[in-house]
Specification:
Strand 6, helix 6 and strand 7 form a beta-alpha-beta unit. Helix content is about 40%, strand content about 15%. Strands 2, 5, 6, 7 and 8 form a 5-stranded parallel β-sheet that branches. It has a two-stranded antiparallel sheet with strand order 1-11. A two-stranded parallel ribbon has the order 3-4. The protein is built from 10 helices and 11 strands. The chain has a single domain, classed as Alpha-Beta Barrel (TIM Barrel), CATH 3.20.20.370. By secondary structure, it is α/β, with parallel strands linked by helices.
Amino acid sequence: MRKRTHKKRPSSSINFIFTAVVLFVILVIGYRLFKMHHPSPPKDIVLIKKTVKVLPPEIKKELKHASPSATFRVPILLYHYVEYVRDRKDTIRQSLSINSYVFEKQLQTLQDAGYTFMTTGQLSGVLDGKTSLPEKPVILTFDDGYRDFYTDAYPLLKKYNAHATAYIVPGFLNALNYMDKDQLEEIARDGLVEIGAHTVHHVYLKNAPLSRVEYEALESKKLLEDELHIPIVSFAYPYGAFDKQAIEVVKTANFKTAVSTVPGIEASQANRFFLFRIRPGGRTGDYLLRFLEQTAFKPY
């Protein structure tokens, strides 16, 4: 009589290893899918922490011959984060942030003092002679497209009916800590906030290869226009870094204005493609008004 042979069942250790491998594969696939929809900013972005605060020498030389008669006094305020920074070790973020309470006080101060909120796109109409400048103009600009613009700043802009310009990096949309496409589309539909371009990947444009500058400027405009179905006419140089080549590319891309991080309040045809901006910081009330009124006006 033949003896029955029984197949050996896999041991519990083999089952454990198999299960672990399957779980690992699932985690890897899940992580990659997450990163596809939530890309992190390129590493080279965090290496440059300081913004450019001076004009390139060749640009400064050209401004000496510009006519002061066509120069307007327009404070353009520069913001990044409007939030409470919980990580006290994140000194860079702290230096670029104000909380929503302070921001609302700034809006109240400006509105009560009779300032008119404009966009950089509207300023281009003034520079072209198509519209007149209000008696007390001010422009609020927000760089990078962080999520707190939608959650903290935008509701306050709506509350005070304050126009502003938000410069968006389309390559960062849906990334961690940045707005997603639905939030940006909602803002664009409302019409209170002008959407501007801030390159595709927040790249330092000064002394960059021409092909890189052209791609970052032209493609950022195209991506935003295709996504939002509106004209994108304003541009911001990442870190405020620009040179003559970058200016020419921005002009060729049919932007009407561009902003820098060079401190000042002058706006004219001479600097419409590197408009000066100032940082209000935590100033509110009379302190903020004195800051705007006493900022030196130097028409080149």
